[in-house]
Design goal:
By secondary structure, the protein is α+β, with helices and mostly antiparallel strands. The protein contains 11 helices and 19 strands. The strands form 5 sheets. It has a 6-stranded mixed β-sheet, with helices on both faces. Strands 1, 13, 14, 17 and 18 form a 5-stranded antiparallel β-sheet that branches.
Amino acid sequence: MDIQKIMRSQRIRLVFLSACVTLCLFFVLERNFLPGISQKLTHKGFDLLANVTRLVKNDYIDERDPARTMDGAYKGLIDSLDPVSSYLGTDATAKYLRRDSRWADIGVVLFKGSFGLFPQVAGIVEDSPAEKAGLKPGDTFSAMDGRGTLNWSSLEANLYLKDLEQKPVFLKVLRENQTLEVNVERAVLFPEPFSFSSTGAFTVLSLHNLYAPCVSEVRKKILPLLKSRKKPLVLDLRNCYEGEIEEARDFLNIFIQSPRIGDFEKKGEIKDPVACLAEPDLAGLPAVLWTNRGTMGASELVAAVLQGTKKVKVIGSETPGLVCRQELFPLQDGSSVLVTSGVFTLASGKKLWEEGVVPDEKIGFEDQGPAAYLKRTAVLFPNR
């Protein structure tokens, strides 16, 4: 009996310790988060948290694992802020810190909006294991390897699909009125952060991510080819959902020079201007942009700025509007909190956060293959 009392006492201490960590998360958000968001974190919220913790401790029928219970509380708190803020467990944090385009993946981009129940397929890479397995844009993943995804953020879901090993992932897929079970192999999709090809009258530069050393490799390997061929450039940003803002800015500087392409607005209406100051290499090169719903974050910045400043035509689908800066806060147990600390507005005043890039030539969600994009591109360059 004494042992049971001791164990109960330890569980109670853990509950209160977890509650204290949650309060710390509140203070982190209060200090760092976006204008207006932190106003939601009021004293009423602290009182509610204390009351809920007391009720669970005193009145719940069973003694739950406090660490597991509070892990769910952290996720609910952070994941509800916006589509990209996320509480990451220890495994997800380790993957996030070591992310690399050379990891094995199945070839889908998952997105879960603020009111979505499960992660949904926003884009599929051509000739990927996902496409070969019959997955389609709009499919919803309700489980992966037997783990329900109801409480997963977009980032968690995309990270789970990545692995150092090329082993399959078992998916439960919801499609209209059907529930499908699909086993999909993982494969290394892109040995480099970009691909380059020549298609008839055009050259196509496909960006797979915007992490360093993407831009330096483009400058070294691709710029000489673009300068010598002088064909119109197709900049394919479909399914480019990963990257850093600084790498996107450096990529833009290949095409434009400007003392201010826009601003990141932080808490307190503080604006941090973004500039492309170097002399551009391809200022006069005719170009067109391809987007889909898998064009997210840093790649959206590239598309919006080129569309707005160089009047480059955008072909494809509207993007989700996730151009932001984020901060990662490691926690003692190896987990972490990733929160949005600034959102981007173009120099024209157009806001990208939650609005995204609107294409000049729209392509339906059901017709995302390269043939449809090339057909629309050819119309824009009739003399080629």
